[in-house]
Design goal:
The chain is an alpha/beta fold and 370 residues long. Helices cover 35% and strands 23% of the residues. It has a domain of 212 residues: 3-Layer(aba) Sandwich (Rossmann fold). It contains 13 helices and 16 strands. Helix 9 crosses helix 10. The longest helix has 17 residues.
Length: 370
């Protein structure tokens, strides 16, 4: 165990001894965002040399299509001055590709100011290196709340899966929150809170009253989704959310740790692995729609990118590429839109949240509320 992991685990143990078992959400938040030792605060986790690879790192095509999508939505909005926001921008790769493609729409770059919501100092440095040469107004924020209000397009690729998730376990006397404890062997382990969660059955989606003992239900406090819904409904605009998850609420333990491109034990070496859980797109849509936004999708990522013309873009890139690069383009395309187990086309979903007056954003025609 590294010194950082040992220090964070010591702090987690201290908190448990003083305050009792902590929720999975609290544990996840400490592992990812502890100011001194949190996973995202201390490293660049992306790429072949990191722990995982995201779609923008696979191919420029992904970010380019997102940029053209944003430009098309901007024209639907009537081409106003616009805040283009990205939540959790990683290395800045997607935004850089999106802005480069945006120059195909003559007036779009002049209409936008770019806002990056990022908590990691190390990743902010990488984003500045990628984006400052593009010559557009850039501002960094710690949260979406800090972004100036007004017409907005929000992009979020693999952002919501890293937000802390609560888990509840069905027991003989009701739903108990799943907790992180210290066991009799002095190891961190999962357990359940002593008492059931009051009135939890009334808060669950329909159909969960008959859950079997041992089943797990996950939920997030959807403050970000509520804020997105409020902004696009009040000021106009849309949000595009791309993540792995499920279109309908269900039971199951989806908490996972990833380190070195493989799965790890989430309770070992806190802060040294990426902790994520699947996104409940139905809950996300419900939160945004409660603020009078409108939800579209989710679509499979493969279907979304096909509708935006990724196969045509790949063909254009291949026509100007030597043989080896053409093969790389084919491999990237297959990974982004394919349905195989290691591909992203089926696993990842795409949802749009929009001002109800806007109409369906590109690729989401006839998908509202599905």
């Amino acid at each position: 165990m590294t010194d950082a992991a040992a220090a964070l685990e010591a702090d987690i143990r201290r908190r448990i001894r003083l305050g009792g078992p902590m929720s999975v959400a609290q544990y996840m938040a400490l592992c990812l965002t502890d100011p001194a030792h949190g996973y995202y605060m201390t490293r660049d986790p992306f790429g072949a040399g990191g722990d995982f690879i995201t779609a923008p790192e696979i191919s420029q095509m992904f970010g380019e299509l997102i940029g053209l999508w944003a430009g098309s939505v901007w024209m639907q909005m009537g081409s106003p001055p616009l805040r283009l926001v990205e939540l959790g921008p990683g290395r800045g790769t997607m935004m850089a590709d999106a802005l480069r493609a945006a120059h195909a729409l003559r007036d779009f770059p002049a209409a936008i100011s770019v806002h990056l919501v990022e908590i990691s100092p190390s990743l902010e440095t990488r984003q500045r290196q990628a984006l400052e040469p593009m010559g557009l107004p850039l501002t960094w924020h710690r949260s979406l709340d800090e972004v100036p209000e007004g017409p907005t397009i929000i992009l979020a690729n693999e952002f919501f899966d890293a937000l802390p998730v609560h888990q509840a376990v069905m027991c003989a006397d009701g739903w108990h929150e799943r907790m992180v404890k210290i066991d009799e062997d002095d190891k961190l382990r999962f357990g359940t809170a002593r008492d059931p969660i009051p009135l939890f059955d009334e808060l669950l989606p329909r159909g969960f009253a008959a859950a079997a003992i041992g089943e797990i239900f996950e939920w997030r406090v959807d403050q970000v989704a509520l804020e997105i819904g409020r902004r696009v409904a009040q000021y106009g605009g849309a949000a595009l959310i791309i993540d792995y998850g499920h279109g309908r609420s269900g039971t199951g333990d989806t908490l996972q740790a990833v380190r070195g491109h493989g799965f790890a034990d989430p309770l070992l070496a806190p802060g040294q692995a990426d902790l994520t859980a699947h996104v409940d797109f139905a809950a996300l849509a419900q939160a945004a729609e409660s603020m009078r936004a409108r939800a579209y999708g989710p679509l499979d990522q493969g279907e979304f990118l096909r509708r935006l013309g990724i196969e045509t873009r790949a063909a254009a890139l291949k026509s100007a590429a030597p043989g080896a690069q053409a093969a790389e383009i084919d491999a990237a395309l297959a990974r982004l839109i394919g349905s195989e187990s290691k591909a992203m086309g089926k696993l990842f979903k795409v949802m749009a949240l929009a001002d109800a007056q806007l109409g369906a954003p590109p690729a989401f025609e006839e998908t509202a509320g599905t």
